[in-house]
Amino acid sequence: MFTQHNRKSRQLLASGIKSTYDDDLYPTRLNFYREPPPLEISIEEFEQFALDRMQVLQALLTAQMRNLTPEQLDKAVSEAIRKYMPMSPNSKSSTSHRQLMEERRKDHISHFILRLAYSRSQELRSWFLRAECALFRYRFEKEMLKDQLEFLEKQNLSWKKVSDEDKRLLREKLKTSSFKAGNIDEETYFEVDFERVTGLVGRRQVYIQAGKAFVRLSDQVVLVLDEFKERLSHALEVTGRALPRMDEDDRLMPVLNNINKQYLGREFTSSAIAGEIQASDVDDLKVHMPLCMEHLHDELRREKHTRHGGRMQYGLFLKGIGLSLEQALIFWQMAFEKITPEQFNKNYAYNVRHSYGMEGKRTDYTPYSCKSIIMNNAPGPGDHHGCPFRHFSPPNLRAQLAAHNVDEFDTDDIIHKVQQRHYQIACTRYYEVTRAKMVGISPENIKGGLSDSATGSMIASQEVIEHPNQFFEQSYLLMKSKNAENEGGAAAAGATAGAGEGMDGVTGPVPLDATVRGRYTYKKAGASISSNVQHDIDM
């Protein structure tokens, strides 16, 4: 148990050592996380709880950044919560009391673990604060009014409830204010300093008198969220100052230091999507590569060489799409045409075999994820690896987008996301725009949700790009589906082998709704973006 290992970590993460929890510790699903969880937890749970909460936070921020409809956002977030961190309401009769407590225990502990992990820098604290505020607001708005009030009554909030007498005196003022007032006698109002609800003031949803704003109970989410944000911001600062005392804990610190770098998606090993490709196939498959790999390929062809960082990033990507070791040796030897076969065998062949797990420790390396490319081993002068959306200068990125026929509106949209450090969402937008043109669909016609023959949507149906091989796979399957559609379903009817081959030599149609799914809505450049999400999802 990690709580038995280090006194200082106990002080940070627990207010006391217990093997059981108080049944009244979590009366509702809502939590201000004022007190550390008074529980023991194993190292295995410690890491798993943190990663599960990360899945939920990233799903929520991603859904908000994709400008989904409220229905689509709710579906995306509720699916992530159900899968990784279910939180049943008190009213759910099928859930036992013990299960409710276990779910809320996990929520409590996972929050404090991520609070530790994200207290190490101002940038990390800002991301965590925004993510947790978004999650708290989502939960608060989903909670029943009875449980909302029960939760608020226990928080000792410094809000003054407006008395019935004061309400009568202010009746006409409240009625004639710009917001739609209901029955004043039945409404509950709170009196707060107006600067605490500047959003409501800006939208003229409150009456102000003598520096005080009179806020309806139905608008209380603004007040509650402000209180939550203020408390958590202070707690993060305190935790950040205390964190250096945990450096001696050699079991917890490696986990805490790497949580924000964890890639939580699918690992792409040798893929069957394109079959086992040959060295000679790589040039033709460039059309399906993400911008990072296409750039590496072009520079390799131009310079007849690339440095170690580029060889690792591009070589493992090719391994993931189906290039065998034998074909990889052929590909790299042919690409390095300025050197002799003897020089290649002496200086480079070992590294190729090593990446396939045939040399050294015989580790079978997997292709780099977007997160790994963005956060590790930044390119230096003369290097071509990295993420174009993260590492290219704005003029260079604009030139690359123009070279791929991305119009000015979409370029501005992508650059805007890059400036906000939403690199993976920028890449996803690039995928969306370029693949729309690839299959002959106007980007303006792209709709959110699953592929739908009624709308003709074939592009807006993939998740946010988290891996270069995911980009390749989705593009490849999309074109295969388009080709099968153009063939009129001949291959699906059992045509002879080879019939229905597409541009990549693929036989047989792939049902579009079974291969390319997702849920985001097109939005033109310059359109507003949710103020709740202003940080890189790739943290």
Key traits:
3 domains, 539 residues, metal ion binding, disordered C terminus, 4 iron, 4 sulfur cluster binding, 50% helix
How would you summarize what this structure contains?
Helices cover 50% and strands 3% of the residues.
Can you describe this structure?
It holds the Pfam family DNA_primase_lrg_N. Residues 135-162 form a coiled coil. DNA primase is the polymerase that synthesizes small RNA primers for the Okazaki fragments made during discontinuous DNA replication. The chain has helices spanning 7-13, 43-65, 70-84, 97-117, 122-142, 145-153, 164-169, 171-176, 198-202, 220-242, 253-258, 282-285, 291-303, 308-321, 325-335, 341-347, 349-355, 370-375, 388-391, 394-403, 408-419, 423-438, 468-486, 512-515; strands at 160-161, 189-193, 207-209, 212-216. It folds into three domains: 2-153 and 227-261, Transcription Elongation Factor S-II, Chain A (Up-down Bundle), CATH 1.20.930; 160-220, no CATH class; 279-515, no CATH class. The protein has a four-stranded antiparallel sheet, with no helix packed on it. Helix content is 50%, strand content 3%. With 539 residues, the protein is mainly alpha-helical. A hairpin with a 2-residue loop joins strand 3 and strand 4 (212-216). The two termini are 28 Å apart.
